[in-house]
């Protein structure tokens, strides 16, 4: 597909492929799995932090001994929390795999 010389090129108006039979593309209000992703992430992170807190409570106050694996699991939990925060932030901002692929910043 070629455009005549001097024609303004707007990639958001040209589809890459035809949609499957029976599917009507909706780029104005695309289907998203963002709310499900946010809910599952919040529940999983809450459960993870609950187990990390229980583990640290047992190691610090019951056994009175903290070892390298406890420090490592705490750092992993913090890193996972930061990564999950970034994932949820991108989902709320409509960037990433939870939204139908489209050019969000291109004005039509």
Describe the structure.
Helix content is 50%, strand content 0%. With 108 residues, it is an all-alpha fold. The chain is elongated, with a radius of gyration of 23 Å. The chain has a domain at 32-92. The longest helix is centred in the middle third of the chain and has 29 residues, at 34-62. The chain is built from two helices and no strands. α1 (34-62) packs antiparallel against α2.
Distance between the termini: 20 Å
How many beta-strand runs? 0
The major β-sheet equals:
none
Principal-axis shape equals elongated
Radius of gyration: 23 Å
User: What fraction of the residues are assigned to beta strands by DSSP?
Assistant: under 5%
| Mean pLDDT across every amino acid position | 79
The number of helices is 2
List keywords for this structure.
single chain, 108 residues, mainly alpha, 2 helices, elongated
Indicate the topology:
Elements: H1 34-62, H2 68-92
Helix pairs in contact: 1-2
Outline of the structure:
This protein is an all-alpha fold and 108 residues long. Helices cover 50% and strands 0% of the residues.
């Amino acid at each position: 597909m070629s455009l005549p010389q001097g024609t303004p090129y707007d990639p958001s108006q040209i589809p890459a492929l035809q949609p499957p039979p029976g599917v009507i593309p909706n780029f104005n209000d695309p289907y998203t799995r963002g709310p499900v992703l946010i809910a599952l992430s919040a529940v999983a992170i809450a459960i993870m932090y609950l187990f990390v807190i229980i583990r640290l409570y047992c190691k610090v106050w019951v056994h009175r001994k903290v070892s390298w694996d406890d420090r490592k699991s705490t750092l992993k939990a913090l890193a996972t929390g930061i990564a999950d925060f970034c994932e949820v932030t991108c989902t709320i901002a409509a960037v990433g795999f939870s939204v139908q692929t489209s050019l969000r910043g291109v004005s039509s």
